[in-house]
Amino acid sequence: MKLKSIQHSSLWSVAFTSVVCLLGTSEASARPPVATSRSVTVNYRDLNLSTIDGAIKLYERLKGAARSVCDGPHIGIAAYEEWRSCYDAAMADAVAKVNNPLLTAVHRGPNKDATTIAMLSK
């Protein structure tokens, strides 16, 4: 009877240890890899950001810089999604740092109301 009890508790101990090990492994693999931060300086002193033309020109420069920083799309859906996530984050960060209503409107897209609101708030 005592042997059966020892075997039973050993079985539970092994099972518990296995589950803990599996949880530890899945947690480690679920963490995103540590990414190094890259940046590019975009000069826009020559642009008039109080005009839509100036905001569009700066936006085009920021798009080129974001493509450069994120190294362009690679082959495969997962690689493209990773690139797209990097690109979108870089663009959002750059637009936020410039903090210009017209540039923000250009970033949001061809929404006439957003451009009008941005122009009126200036």
Helix content: over 70%
Total number of beta strands: 0
How many helices? The count is: 5
| Structural class designation | mainly alpha
User: Given the C-alpha coordinates, what overall shape results?
Assistant: elongated
> How far from one another are the termini?
86 Å
Total individual domains: 2
Q: For the report, how would you describe the main beta sheet?
A: none
Pick out the low-confidence regions.
5-34
The whole-angstrom Rg is 26 Å
Explained architecture:
- It is a single chain.
- This protein is mostly helical.
- It has two domains: 1-31; 52-121, no CATH class.
- Helix content is 72%, strand content 0%.
- It has helices spanning 2-30, 52-70, 77-98, 101-108, 112-121.
- Helix 2 packs across helix 3 (77-98).
- It is elongated.
- The protein starts with a helix and ends with a helix.
Kindly summarize this structure in a few lines.
The chain is mostly helical and 122 residues long. Helices cover 72% and strands 0% of the residues. The protein has 2 domains: 1-31; 52-121, no CATH class.
Comma- or semicolon-separated keywords:
single chain, 122 residues, mainly alpha, 2 domains, 5 helices, 0% strand
Please write out the topology.
Layout: H1 2-30, H2 52-70, H3 77-98, H4 101-108, H5 112-121
